[in-house]
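Treating backbone geometry as a discrete language has practical consequences that deserve illustration. Part of our work consisted of pairing the sequence of a single chain with a tokenised description of its backbone. We regard such an encoding as a compact summary of how the chain folds. The amino acid sequence and the backbone structure tokens for this protein are reproduced below.
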Amino acid sequence: MPFRTMTTLQAWIDDFRALGYDDAGILKVIPQDGEEGSDTGLIAAGLRSVSTTFYVSPETDPGSTGWAVTFEPRENAAPLGSARVLALSGELAMLSALCTFLQARAEAFVEARS
């Protein structure tokens, strides 16, 4: 999947940030150990409203252009008051929009290669 290169993912994240999502500033592209030293990346960040780390990556089904959010496990419970739950809902809405955006970009990339 050539659309997983660090450069491509960073360009897509920059384009997504330009759309004006308030929480998009938490996103960063990090290196991922690809097969045979390939230049692949993941999109990662820590949520602001709760100390949970996540990453966004393409779905693993061959030929899929979908993207998924994986939340890292937590050691402790995270009770949240109403204001922090509202903040979390905004961050999760941004992640949902990001996955939709990345899928559209991946589909266009695959289509252009066909």
